[in-house]
Amino acid sequence: MPIDQKEKTEQRDQAAEQEKEQQQETTPDTVTRREQEQQQETSTDKALRKEQKKKRRQEKRQNKRPRRRIFPIWLRIIVVLVLSAIALLVGLMVGYGIIGDGNPIDALKWETWQHIIDIVVKER
Questions:
Q1: How many CB atoms lie within 10 A of CB 107?
Q2: For residues 106 and 96, what is the distance between their CA atoms, to the nearest angstrom?
């Protein structure tokens, strides 16, 4: 290669490097502007979403029909208590009659419980 061509290519390379440096210097400004614009867009999107959510909630509250329970809560509580009492009685009868080799009906008599209490408390 002749010397003139080498000089020309070197000058081109230097010019290209200068252009790249200038672009890099200007690029951060444009990037920050773009980032700012994106942040503003996302913040407005979030605000719009929140407003829409509030509107939906208000509409649901206004359109909400009162709930009528077929099986009221107070009745549920009574049913649970009655079923618990029945389970207790059945458990006593099974424990005393089948496991303890006694008469299952005796588990429900007061005399049986008085005898058990006397054994446990046993005065000395």
A1: 19
A2: 8
- Neighbouring C-alpha atoms within 13 Å toward the C-beta of 15: 6
Cα(37)–Cα(75) distance, integer angstroms: 60
CA atoms within 13 A on the CB side of 86: 6
Model-wide pTM > 0.85: no
User: Which of 44-53's residues contact partners 24+ apart within 8 Å by CB, and which partners?
Assistant: none
Indicate the domain borders of the chain: 1-64, 73-121
- For residues 93 and 108, the answer to whether their CB atoms sit within 8 Å is yes
Place of tokens 């079923």: 83
Cα distance between residue 117 and residue 124, in whole Å: 14
Per-residue pLDDT of the chain (124 residues; tens, 9 = 90+): 566 777 777 778 887 777 777 666 655 555 577 776 666 677 778 788 888 888 888 888 888 777 788 889 999 999 999 999 999 999 999 999 988 888 999 999 999 999 989 999 987 6
Tokens 């099974």 belong to residue: 94
